[in-house]
C-alpha cells in the first residue's frame, strides 16, 4: 500500500509528477488516435484499431469527434502550463493546491469521458462528465487569475533587472495575469457556441465554413475561439520559457510591456469578430500580434546572447564560430526559442502570406486546398508548442551529457523536418500542378511520417524509462517529488 | 577509424572520446536519406502512362428518375423536399463531352480561341461582398486544350478523346463548361438538394451505397484500384460505373450504386452543382474524388472553387 501511496503522491502531488502524467496521457492519445488518419488509415491500420478497441465510428459525427479529441489534448496542455506557472511564480499555497486539484481532475475527466463519449458510443453520462471536466478547468483558470493578482504588495519587486512599475508592480507577473484572464474570457467564446452546436452532437469544423460570406455570430465565435486559444497557449509558454531562463535586463523591460499590450489588443481583436467591429477585427489582430511577437523576439535575442556570452566567458577574444558553438551547445535551452523562430516559417509566415494574397492566390484554389493550409498551419503551431514543452521537460528531468544532446537535438531535428515538410505540402500548389504532384507528396509524407513517428518513439522511450523508474525504491522520482521549478530557474 | 579521423581536418585536435566518425557517419546517412527523398520527390510523372481499359457495361446515356418527396438533407438530416426529376446515371464521359464540343463548335455555340474552348455565360449579379469575384456576362473558358492533363484533344478540325479515356468522366472542365453542356441538351446542373437526394435517397445514409465505406466501393485516395500508382502519377479516374459489383482482371468491386441506381456519386471525380449563392462567386462540388480521403466522399461534404477552376479531379452530370 505504501508503495502505491508514495508513487501516487509523486504523480499527483508534485509538479514534475503532474507534468509527467499529463505528458503520458497526451502521448497515449496521440499514439492511438494518430492511427485513425493519414498514412495509418491508408495502410489499413485504422480499421484494425477501430475493431481492436471496439470504437463506434458514426460517419456523420466525425467533426464532433475531432473537436472532442482536440479539446482533450488541449486541456492536458493547458494543465501542464498551469503546473509550470504555479511552480514558477510565487502564490499562496491554498490557491496553488486548489488550482492544481481542479485542473487535474478537470483535464482527466475531459480526456477520459470526452474520448469515451466521442469514440465509444454515446453514453450521455460521459458527455456530462466531459462538460464537468471542462467546467472545472474553467474554474481553475478563474482561481489562477486570483492567485496571480499582480497588485498584491507581496508580489511587488524592486530588482531593477526586471520590468516593473515605479510602485514595484512586477510587469512579468502582469503579463502572466493578463494571459490567464484573457484565456478564461476567450474560453467563453468556445463555451457558448459549443453548447449551442454541441447539443445533439451537431457541429462543424471552422475550416469547412471559412469561405462562406455570411457567417453567424456563433460561427464567428468558434473561429475566433480556436485561433485565440492556441495563440494564448503559445503566449503563456513564451512567458514560462522566459521565466525558466530567467529573462531579465533591458530586453525584459521592453518585452514585458509589449507582451501585455499585444495580448490585450490581440484578444480585443478576436473578441471583436462577434461584434459590429468584425470588418476591422483582422487589422486589430495584426496590431496586437506584432508586439507579442516582438516580445518573443526580444527573449530570443537576449537568451542567445546570454548563451554565447556565458559559453565563451573563459575565452579572451571568442570568434564568431565559437560564440555560435556556445549558443547552440545546450539544445534544451537553445531549442525553445529556436522553435519560436521556426514557428514564423510554419505558422505566422504562412498566415500572413495567406492573408495578403488571399484573393489573388488562395481563393482561386478549391476550398479543400485552403483547408489544407488552414489545418496545416495550426497543427504545426500545436506541434511546436508540444516540442517546447518536451524540451523544458527534458531539463526538468535533469538530462545531462550525451543523453541531453541526443534528446534535445532529436526533438529539434525531427520536428523541424516534419513541420518543414508540412509547410511545403501546404504550399505545394504554388509551384506544382495537381496532376504531377504525387512524387513530391510521397517525399514530403516520408519526411513528415519519419519526423513525427520518431518523435513519438523518443517520447515513448522517455515514458518507458520513467515508468520503470517508478518501480525503483530510490528512483529519480524520489528526488523530483519535492522539487519546484522556481528552484531550477537559470541564474 | 583512425585514418578517417586524421583525414578530417576540421576535427583535428578533438578527443577520440567524442567519436567524430560516428557522428560523421550519422550525418552522412541522414544527408543520404534526405537526398534520396528529395530525388524521389522530383521523379518525373508520365501523364500518358497506359491505362487499363474496361467495359463496365453501364450505359452512360441513361437517366434515372428520382421521385418527388421529402428526404434527409445534409449532415444533420434536415428534412427537404424535391419534385420529381431525372438525373444522369453516370458522370458525363469524355467521349460525350467531345461529341458536344464537335456539335457546339460546328453550330457556332462555342468557339476555339487559342488553347481554350470558349462559350457564353450570362453572368451573375455582383453584390460587392468581400472576396466576391465579379462574373460578368460574356465568353468564358469551358475547357483548356493545352493542359497536359486534358484528355479531350483538338486537331484543328475535330475533338477526339485520348485512347483509353473514352468512358472516363470528363475532367478539366470549368463550371461554365459543365453548365454549358447541360444547357446545350436542355438540361441543367443539379442543385445541391437534387444532387444529394439522388445520391443518398431518403434514409439518411452517408454514402450512396449505405452506411460504411470500403476500398472496393469507390475510387478515392490510395484506394488501391487498378488505375492508381501512388509511386508515380498517383490516383487516376476510373471508367464511369466501374464500381458495379463486377470483377475486372481479378479486381473485385462492390456494387455501389445509389438507391436510384446512380454510379460514382462518391469518389472518382467531384461533381459541379448548379447553385449560385448570393454574394459568393464560388461554385460548389460534391462527392469527393480520386484525390481525397474517404471522409470527403460523404454525400453532404461540400467543396467549392471559382467557376473558372478546372482540375483532373472535377467532373459533372446533368438533371432534367
What distinguishing features does this structure have?
heterodimer; A: mainly alpha; 0% strand; B: 320 residues; alpha+beta; paralog of FGE (formylglycine-generating enzyme); four-stranded mixed beta sheet; three-stranded antiparallel beta sheet; 5 helices; 15 strands; 18% strand
Walk me through this protein's architecture.
The complex is a heterodimer of chains A (about 500) and B (about 325). Chain A has 17 helices and no strands. The radius of gyration of chain A is 23 Å and the shape is globular. The mean pLDDT of chain A is about 95. Chain A is mainly α and about 500 residues long. Chain A has helices at about 1-15, 15-35, 40, 45-55, 60-90, 95-120, 125-150, 170-200, 215-245, 250-270, 280-310, 320-325, 330-355, 365-395, 400-425, 440-470, 475-480. Chain B has about 325 residues and is an alpha+beta fold. Chain B folds into two domains: about 1-40, no CATH class; about 65-315, paralog of FGE (formylglycine-generating enzyme). Chain B is about 20% helix and about 20% strand. Chain B contains five helices and 15 strands. In chain B, strands 14-13-12-15 form a four-stranded mixed sheet, covered by helices on one side. In chain B, strands 5-6-7 form a three-stranded antiparallel sheet. In chain B, a hairpin with a 4-residue loop joins strand 2 and strand 3 (about 80). In chain B, about 40% of the residues are buried. Classes of the chains: A mainly alpha (about 500), B alpha+beta (about 325). The interface between A and B is large, with 37 and 50 residues.
Order of adjacent strands in the largest pleated sheet of chain B:
14-13-12-15
With helices defined by DSSP (H or I, 4 residues minimum), what is the helix count of chain B? 5
Query: Could you name the CATH topology of the largest domain in chain B?
Result: paralog of FGE (formylglycine-generating enzyme)
Strand content range of chain A: under 5%
The description of the largest β-sheet of chain B is: 4 strands, mixed
Structural class of chain A: mainly alpha
CATH C-level category of the largest domain in chain B: Alpha Beta
Q: First CA to last CA of chain A: what distance?
A: 40 Å
In total, how many beta strands of chain B?
A: 15
Chains forming the largest contact: A-B, 37 and 50 residues
Helix/strand order of chain A? HHHHHHHHHHHHHHHHH
- Between the first and last Cα atoms of chain B, what is the distance in angstroms? 79 Å
- Describe the main β-sheet of chain A briefly: none
Q: What is the mean pLDDT of chain A?
A: 93
- Bin the strand percentage of chain B: 15-25%
Low-confidence stretches of chain A: none
Low-confidence stretches of chain B: 1-18
Structural domain count of chain B: 2
Helix segment tally of chain A: 17
Summarize the amount of helix of chain A as a percent range.
over 70%
Tell me how many strands of chain A there are: 0
Amino acid at each position: 500500500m505504501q508503495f502505491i501511496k508514495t508513487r501516487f503522491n509523486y504523480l499527483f502531488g508534485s509538479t514534475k509528477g503532474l507534468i509527467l502524467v499529463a505528458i503520458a496521457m497526451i502521448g497515449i492519445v496521440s499514439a492511438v488516435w494518430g492511427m485513425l488518419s493519414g498514412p495509418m488509415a491508408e495502410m489499413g491500420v485504422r480499421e484494425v484499431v477501430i475493431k481492436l478497441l471496439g470504437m463506434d465510428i458514426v460517419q456523420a459525427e466525425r467533426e464532433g469527434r475531432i473537436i472532442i479529441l482536440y479539446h482533450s489534448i488541449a486541456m492536458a496542455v493547458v494543465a501542464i502550463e498551469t503546473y509550470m506557472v504555479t511552480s514558477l511564480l510565487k502564490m499562496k499555497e491554498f490557491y496553488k493546491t486548489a488550482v492544481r486539484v481542479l485542473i487535474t481532475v478537470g483535464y482527466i475527466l475531459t480526456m477520459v469521458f470526452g474520448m469515451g463519449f466521442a469514440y465509444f458510443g454515446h453514453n450521455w453520462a460521459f458527455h456530462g462528465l466531459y462538460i464537468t471536466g471542462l467546467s472545472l478547468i474553467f474554474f481553475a483558470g478563474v482561481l489562477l487569475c486570483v492567485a496571480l493578482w499582480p497588485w498584491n504588495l507581496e508580489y511587488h519587486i524592486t530588482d531593477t533587472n526586471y520590468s516593473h512599475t515605479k510602485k514595484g508592480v512586477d510587469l512579468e507577473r502582469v503579463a502572466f495575469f493578463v494571459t490567464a484572464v484573457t484565456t478564461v474570457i476567450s474560453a467563453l467564446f468556445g463555451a457558448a457556441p459549443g453548447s449551442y452546436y454541441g447539443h445533439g452532437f451537431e457541429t462543424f469544423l471552422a475550416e469547412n465554413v471559412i469561405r462562406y460570406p455570411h457567417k453567424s455570430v456563433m460561427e464567428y465565435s468558434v473561429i475566433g475561439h480556436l485561433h485565440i486559444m492556441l495563440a494564448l497557449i503559445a503566449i503563456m509558454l513564451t512567458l514560462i520559457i522566459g521565466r525558466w531562463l530567467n529573462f531579465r535586463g533591458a530586453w525584459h523591460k521592453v518585452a514585458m510591456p509589449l507582451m501585455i499590450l499585444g495580448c490585450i489588443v490581440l484578444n480585443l481583436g478576436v473578441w471583436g469578430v462577434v461584434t459590429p467591429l468584425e470588418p476591422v477585427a483582422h487589422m486589430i489582430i495584426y496590431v496586437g500580434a506584432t508586439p507579442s511577437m516582438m516580445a518573443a523576439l526580444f527573449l530570443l535575442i537576449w537568451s542567445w546572447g546570454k548563451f554565447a556570452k556565458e559559453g565563451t566567458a573563459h575565452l579572451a577574444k571568442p570568434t564568431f564560430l565559437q560564440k555560435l558553438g556556445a549558443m547552440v551547445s545546450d539544445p534544451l535551452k537553445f531549442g525553445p526559442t529556436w522553435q519560436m523562430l521556426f514557428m514564423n516559417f510554419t505558422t505566422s509566415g504562412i498566415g500572413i502570406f495567406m492573408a495578403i494574397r488571399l484573393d489573388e492566390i488562395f481563393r482561386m484554389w478549391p476550398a479543400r486546398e485552403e483547408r489544407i493550409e488552414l489545418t496545416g498551419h495550426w497543427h504545426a503551431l500545436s506541434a511546436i508548442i508540444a516540442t517546447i514543452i518536451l524540451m523544458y521537460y527534458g531539463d526538468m528531468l535533469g538530462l545531462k551529457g550525451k543523453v541531453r544532446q541526443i534528446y534535445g537535438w532529436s526533438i529539434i531535428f525531427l520536428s523541424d523536418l516534419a513541420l518543414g515538410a508540412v509547410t511545403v505540402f501546404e504550399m505545394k500548389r504554388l509551384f506544382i500542378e495537381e496532376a504531377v504532384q504525387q512524387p513530391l507528396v510521397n517525399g514530403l509524407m516520408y519526411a513528415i511520417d519519419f519526423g513525427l513517428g520518431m518523435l513519438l518513439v523518443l517520447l515513448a522511450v522517455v515514458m518507458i524509462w520513467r515508468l520503470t523508474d517508478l518501480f525503483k525504491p530510490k528512483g529519480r522520482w524520489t528526488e523530483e517529488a519535492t522539487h519546484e521549478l522556481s528552484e531550477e530557474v537559470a541564474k | 577509424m583512425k585514418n578517417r579521423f586524421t583525414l578530417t581536418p576540421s576535427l583535428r585536435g578533438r578527443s577520440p572520446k567524442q567519436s567524430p566518425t560516428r557522428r560523421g557517419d550519422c550525418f552522412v546517412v541522414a544527408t543520404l536519406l534526405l537526398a534520396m527523398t528529395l530525388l524521389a520527390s522530383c521523379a518525373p510523372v508520365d501523364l500518358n502512362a497506359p491505362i487499363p481499359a474496361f467495359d463496365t457495361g453501364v450505359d452512360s446515356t441513361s437517366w434515372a428518375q428520382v421521385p418527388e418527396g421529402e428526404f434527409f438533407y445534409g449532415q444533420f438530416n434536415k428534412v427537404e423536399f424535391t419534385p420529381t426529376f431525372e438525373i444522369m446515371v453516370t458522370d458525363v464521359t469524355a467521349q460525350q463531352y467531345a461529341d458536344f464540343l464537335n456539335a457546339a463548335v460546328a453550330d457556332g455555340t462555342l468557339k476555339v480561341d487559342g488553347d481554350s474552348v470558349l462559350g457564353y455565360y450570362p453572368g451573375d449579379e455582383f453584390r460587392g461582398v468581400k472576396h466576391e469575384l465579379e462574373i460578368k456576362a460574356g465568353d468564358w473558358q469551358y475547357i483548356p486544350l493545352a493542359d497536359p492533363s486534358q484528355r479531350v484533344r483538338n486537331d484543328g478540325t475535330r475533338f477526339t478523346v485520348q485512347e483509353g479515356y473514352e468512358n472516363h468522366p470528363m475532367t478539366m472542365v470549368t463550371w461554365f463548361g459543365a453548365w454549358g453542356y447541360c444547357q446545350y441538351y436542355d438540361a441543367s446542373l443539379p442543385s445541391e438538394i437534387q444532387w444529394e437526394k439522388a445520391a443518398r435517397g431518403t434514409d439518411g445514409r452517408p454514402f450512396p451505397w449505405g452506411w460504411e465505406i470500403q476500398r472496393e466501393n469507390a475510387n478515392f485516395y490510395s484506394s488501391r484500384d487498378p488505375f492508381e500508382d501512388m509511386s508515380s502519377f498517383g490516383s487516376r479516374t476510373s471508367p464511369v460505373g466501374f464500381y458495379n459489383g463486377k470483377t475486372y482482371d481479378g479486381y473485385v468491386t462492390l456494387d455501389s450504386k445509389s438507391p436510384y441506381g446512380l454510379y460514382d456519386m462518391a469518389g472518382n471525380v467531384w461533381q459541379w452543382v448548379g447553385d449560385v449563392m448570393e454574394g459568393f462567386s464560388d461554385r460548389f462540388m460534391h462527392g469527393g474524388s480520386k484525390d481525397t480521403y474517404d471522409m470527403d466522399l460523404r454525400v453532404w461534404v461540400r467543396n467549392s472553387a471559382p467557376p473558372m477552376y478546372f482540375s483532373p479531379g472535377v467532373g459533372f452530370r446533368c438533371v432534367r
